[in-house]
Amino acid sequence: MKPASTSKAIDWSEVRRRLEAAGQLLDAGFAPPPEQRRVILAARARALAAEPPPAPGPGFEALEFLLAREHYALETSWVREVYPLRELTPLPGTPDFVMGIIHVRGRIVSVLDIKTFFELPAQGLSDLNKVIVLGDGAMEFGILGDAIVGVRRIPRDDLQAPLPTLTDIRAEYLMGITRQRQVVLDGHKLLSDPAIVVAAEVAG
Prior knowledge:
The chain is α+β, with helices and mostly antiparallel strands. The chain has helices spanning 12-27, 34-50, 114-117, 187-192, 194-203, and strands at 59-67, 70-75, 79-84, 98-104, 107-112, 130-135, 140-145, 147-155, 174-177, 183-185. α1 packs antiparallel against α2 (34-50).
């Protein structure tokens, strides 16, 4: 049996305090012997290199996907699952952006083409198309994505207010736009907007 470790956690605040005090002496003109000066500077460098990085700021996990060759994202808290677009049944008498319904694990889920709803450029269907099923406990429907890119974490301070020249989507449907020009949709707004919800209920 190995003896219990007696090492203790490093008190980084105390290490910084001592090194800062030594640095202040150096800056004030204190001149230790060259060897001692090298030891102090080397200790400062090691402490800075070993200090753990700051914790990441507030952010959220987002599903990134393509719409009309542009990158979009939705907070994963609104995403129930991603499902292949297959066996789509059209529904006559519904708005143009209601594509139809599909069966997902025994449930009937309406599928909306938000490119049509947002009046984005149309694009033909392919094997890459996926249905992103959104839900909040009260409402559930799917939106069509041209392709799924992946899941990434977006810092909240990375979001910027959308400019009219960057997207054709009205600001009330957006959380913001990242510095990389990724459009982040507001899942809560999509699930609660009467313009979409009424159509989804008819389709369901």
